[in-house]
Amino acid sequence: MHLSVAAPPHRREDALCIAAEHFAFCPDNIWQGTHHDLAAYAEELVHLNYWALWWH
């Protein structure tokens, strides 16, 4: 699923909350993605206006 994000997080703390929601909804983004770590995934969400969620 591809999402256009009108108001992406601008702070790491906000991105970490969103990353936790993504993990609950779509853990493959972290487990099988390039991040393997919730904090690293969150870092990439800061200012990112396009999110891709996928399931294996």
What does this structure look like?
The chain is built from three helices and two strands. The chain has 56 residues and is mostly helical. It has one domain (2-52). The relative contact order is 0.31. A two-stranded antiparallel ribbon has the order 1-2. α1 crosses α3. The chain has helices spanning 12-25, 28-31, 38-45; strands at residues 2-4, 50-52. It is globular and about 30 Å long. Helix content is 46%, strand content 11%.
Succession of helices and strands:
EHHHE
Class inferred from helices and paired strands:
mainly alpha
Contiguous runs where pLDDT drops below 50 for at least 5 residues: none
Shape: globular
Q: How is this fold's topology laid out?
A:
Blueprint: E1 2-4, H1 12-25, H2 28-31, H3 38-45, E2 50-52
Antiparallel strand pairs: 1-2
Helix pairs in contact: 1-3
Provide tags for this entry:
single chain; two-stranded antiparallel sheet; mainly alpha; 46% helix; globular; 2 strands; 3 helices; 56 residues; 11% strand
